[in-house]
Design goal:
The protein is mainly β. Helices cover 5% and strands 51% of the residues. A five-stranded antiparallel sheet has the order 4-3-2-1-5, with no helix packed on it. A five-stranded antiparallel sheet has the order 9-8-7-6-10.
């Protein structure tokens, strides 16, 4: 298993876990904070030690800034979300979406793990 990941990398917990996106890295103790959507599109967040993660791929976020009202997904997919608010420094966004049970969700998500829908279409990312 890889023991070094970067923000935005797509990883799996063990061999058969769901796809997770590395959102931040803690150096001591070494943990990777990951986000993902469960099987009904509820956002999950947890931290993992590197020995439990397996690298899947790297998909970088769009270079241009995102804006209020744009439709986005995590770099690997998940539900369609709408940007409601951008932080002053443009490094995180308040995104909203409905899960598969029609429950509304809103969460602050870091810039480095988001992609515009048209970028995902162009690159034919899985889970779109």
């Amino acid at each position: 298993m890889n023991d070094s990941f970067n923000v935005g990398d797509i990883v799996r917990y063990s061999e058969n876990g769901p796809k997770l996106v590395v959102e931040s890295v803690s150096s001591y103790p070494e943990f990777y904070r990951c986000i993902w959507f469960d099987d009904v599109n509820r956002l999950q967040i947890n931290s993992f030690i590197p020995e439990t993660l397996k690298f899947v791929e790297t998909i970088r976020c769009d270079e241009e800034a995102l804006h209020k009202g744009e439709k986005v997904k995590l770099v690997w997919g998940g539900p369609k979300m709408i940007i409601e608010v951008a932080s002053a420094d443009g490094q995180s966004y308040v995104c909203s979406w409905f899960d598969d049970h029609h429950v509304f969700h809103r969460s602050d998500i870091k810039r480095d793990v988001l992609r515009r829908l048209e970028t995902l279409r162009k690159h034919r990312i899985d889970d779109f």
